[in-house]
Specification:
By secondary structure, this protein is mainly alpha-helical. The chain contains 26 helices and no strands. Helix 10 packs antiparallel against helix 11 and helix 22 packs antiparallel against helix 23.
């Protein structure tokens, strides 16, 4: 979610905003010295979003104002803005990749909360008392490491509605009640035994957003609330993309909605996901990849061509590429077009954009898939496994610190060695080293860990079949491959690789000419994985059992 203050400022030209703050500079009536000094400090505060140094400068300006104009009726406003600035610095510190800076976040949040709560500096009669109450709730909402922070935030947001029911920030409080319950719902989805359940919390969030729309008919939060209603359907464990599309479309009933870019982007994401769902004959997907692409391109044309660019521009550019990459039966032009869009993310938005690591990863994936499918190269890229490997290696902690693609990229580096058409021992040794590094570097909870574990088994298995000399760290034997396959089910019980690992584990007996062991393992596989659960491997397992019984299909020794 974008910074709400920044989004509101984008509705006005920069000069107009300055004139609102400094009237005398734009031909208005002369401004009193205290008002002019205060407004200058506000300009400093409003001009920052990600700069702790400028925030500190704003705090200094407000502190000087308090010293220079101790009797001004703007003193409580100045104290409020000092708290706001510290609050913003706390958010920046919390998101810092520097451990020392991140460690200061808790103290900053506590300091900001204390200042908002100080009735000596921001008395209950102050015109900032309602804002301060709201921001106390925001300090809990924003402090992601605070235990029970969402419950504490809800209390404060409800206090705004109780104590300041007609306040200009009552709609914000109502909106953040929805946001807080929404976040609680997302946490409940990953909890073991959540109380209340995620479904209950999503409904509560939806109801809270609905009150913003119905109770605050002039609120600038109504479009945000409508967008978030769409997200409550999109964010479900089993998303309701169709209803999400309906809700996102309703955002455009508002004139120049501040979240129009978000809504348009998620219309694309929802249609994209529907297009990827398997069709059940005779039905077909309601939406296609072309439909999704249309929405993403509208983000690019409507929100990425002016001065105030949407933060969704790089994501939309990346997703346009995905609509070509995700084609079920891709042709050369699909991959070349996809590659162009992924490269455009980096050339247009740089390596610090939110989608840049994904784009870099999919540059590797596109070249990788192109190499496997023998797709003709584009004028700017050659499709080889070595070139794909080069692109994957660009997804590293130095260029993309904290990227969720680091483990995936390392796994795919391993695949570029494993996927060699005519491998030699060094290929498998390199593949094995990278698969093992995924787990040793990122742990068993990494998204690619189960894939890496499965391919540790496959590498040892195939290395044994091909008679390769093993690397120093491991021996290539069928029992060792079997042990590695078994780890998929014991360490990753929810993995989509379970049937793959179980089938290939059974296949090790076949490759070892152990008919009795193969019969038992293939029988167990069929008992555990029906044709519905494993439509690919169940029939193959049955063929092996038939071959054992008849002495055919490579089972003549049986």
């Amino acid at each position: 979610m974008k910074n709400s203050l920044a989004k509101k400022l984008l509705r006005f030209p920069a000069v107009a905003t300055l004139c609102v703050v400094l009237l005398s500079a734009c031909g208005g009536s002369p401004v009193a010295p205290d008002r002019l000094a205060f407004n200058t400090a506000v300009v400093t505060f409003n001009n920052i979003t990600t700069d702790a140094t400028t925030l500190t400068a704003a705090e200094t300006a407000f502190a000087k104002f308090i010293t220079d104009f101790p009797t001004s009726n703007l003193i409580d406003d100045a104290y409020y803005y000092i708290a706001r600035s510290i609050h913003e610095r706390a958010k920046l510190a919390q998101g810092s990749l520097d451990p020392a800076t991140a460690a200061t976040a808790t103290a900053l949040f506590t300091d900001a909360r204390s200042r908002y709560s100080d009735t000596k500096t921001i008395p209950i009669t102050s015109n900032k008392a309602d804002n301060a109450q709201l921001q106390i709730g925001k300090t809990y909402y924003d402090q992601t490491t605070l235990t029970d922070n969402y419950g504490l935030a809800l209390t404060q947001f409800n206090n705004v509605l109780t104590n300041f029911p007609t306040s200009s920030v009552a709609d914000d409080a109502q909106y953040y009640i929805g946001r807080t319950k929404h976040e609680q719902a997302l946490l409940a989805q990953i909890a073991v035994s959540p109380t209340p359940t995620a479904a209950t919390l999503f409904t509560a969030a939806r109801d809270a957003y609905g009150l913003v729309i119905s109770n605050y008919t002039t609120s600038t939060r109504r479009d945000d609330a409508q967008y978030q209603i769409g997200r409550t359907y999109y964010d479900l464990t089993i998303p309701n993309y169709t209803q999400a599309i309906t809700e996102f479309n309703l955002v455009f009933q508002y004139t120049a909605p501040s979240v129009g870019d978000d809504a348009r982007y998620y219309l694309g994401r929802s249609k994209h996901e529907i297009a990827l769902l398997p069709a059940v004959p005779p039905a077909t997907p309601t939406y296609t990849l072309v439909d999704a692409r249309t929405e993403y391109n509208l983000v690019l044309s409507d929100y990425c061509a002016g001065i105030a660019l949407s933060t969704r521009c790089d994501d939309a550019q990346y997703q346009v590429g995905k609509t070509y990459y995700d084609v079920a039966i891709p042709v050369a032009t699909d991959y070349s077009t996809a590659l162009g869009h992924f490269q455009a993310v980096l050339s247009a938005y740089g390596t610090t954009a939110s989608a840049s690591d994904n784009a870099q990863y999919y540059i590797g994936r596109t070249i990788h898939q192109g190499a496997l499918l023998a797709v003709p190269p584009t004028p700017t890229a050659t499709y080889t496994l070595a070139n794909a490997r080069t692109e994957y290696l660009k997804v590293n902690a130095t260029t993309y610190p904290g990227s969720v693609r680091l483990d995936d990229a390392l796994y795919q580096v391993g695949r570029t060695y494993y996927d060699v058409a005519i491998p030699v021992a060094a290929d498998y040794s390199n593949a094995l080293g990278n698969f093992q590094a995924v787990i040793s570097t990122y742990g068993t909870t990494a998204s690619a860990a189960d894939d890496a574990q499965f391919y540790i088994g496959r590498t040892i298995h195939q290395g044994t079949v091909l008679g390769f000399a093993p690397p120093p760290s491991v021996t290539y034997t069928y029992p060792i491959a079997r042990d590695e396959y078994l780890k998929v089910s014991t360490i990753y019980p929810g993995s989509i690789r379970l049937d793959d690992a179980a089938f290939y584990s059974a296949l090790t007996f076949h490759d070892a000419n152990d008919c009795l062991g193969e019969k038992g393992a293939m029988t167990t596989f069929i008992n555990n994985f029906s044709a519905t659960v494993s439509p690919t491997f169940n029939p193959l397992a049955q063929q092996h059992l038939d071959g054992i019984a008849k002495g055919t299909r490579g089972h003549s020794n049986c």
